[in-house]
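Moderator note: this is an archived Q&A kept for reference. The question asked for a predicted structure of one protein chain; the sequence and the answer are reproduced below.
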Amino acid sequence: MLWLRWASYSQEPMDIREIARRAKVSTATASRAINRVSTVDPQLAKRVWKVVDELGYYPNTQARALVSGRSRIFGLIVSEFTNPFFPEIVQTFENLAVGNNYEILLTSTVNDPRRMELSVRRMIERRVDGVAILTFGMEETLLEHLRFRSVPLVFVDVGPDVRGIANIRINYQNGIRQAVQHLAALRHTRIAFVAGPLHLKSALARQEAFKASMIEIGLPPELIVVGDHRLEGGMRALIEIGRLNTRPTAVLCSNDMTAIGVMRQAYDQKIKIPDDLSVVGFDDIRMAEFTMPPLTTVQMSQKDLAKIAFQALLNEVEGRSTSHERHEYELTTNLVLRLSTALAPAGRPSTTPPKRVGASRFRKVSTTVQSD
């Protein structure tokens, strides 16, 4: 039986039969109307909700979940709220939830596998209808733990090859190939890459995409510095790159925060962007458009990612896909051209003879920039 409660300080329960009596409908119709069952006649549903509004009652969602078997709550887990990549994901996901009469239970993991496991467990205990795990990193043991749950789950990149679990594959190769080819077209032959933490599968995938793209155009992918996807890591990475005998004319970064850190350190070292050094990021976070100069970057649309994740959960919960199928989605990446890239210094027309470029090849840098 569904109960309603006063919206005021009074917490006296009211039997749904009273709501049905005042609305002049059956108890079953009142229950279905409050649970927003689509088969209820719109006029009858309007009468039920008119009574609810007039009396100042609101549905007890926990009781409603027990009656309907659904909480109409989706869980959303992100890595960290302070990362500028995630706010647009959260906002888009919530907008879609509200538009579809769902709520969201939001949490962050701060890149802590144990905290992630506790977050998922808490959401399952709250009887959420599904969970979107948009963290770009997941421990294999946690995957093994979650695969036996009946709650629909959506992962990014790391979803197991198991039927009934949705996975969003990011096509990193497309956008990174465009970035490398763009730099090559600007006559850059010494292109560095600042990777992310290699325990993250997404960071490793971006590095591999860079290597493959460089080999594809006949350039050695030898200059790779491992960063931490943070501003400070980008600053330290440029210092490390500056210690090389043969310096790059372009740097491609594993995310925009790293690229912005590179640009900040370049400012301190009086390295002009893009005259002396071209810089490319990855993600296309909001602030990338407002750096000086605006950052050329590989766009991984946060809005589209949130839309795909929400739709995947909705398909699972509302029976739009069969449970015995394995569901795979793809999000492609594309280069966004701004002003942080330009013709390589050696290839730029000049009234003075260009400096001779050393013939020595890059040596690989394996120094890992530690997280704060």
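Archived answer notes: Confidence is low (pLDDT under 50) at residues 1-13, 350-372.
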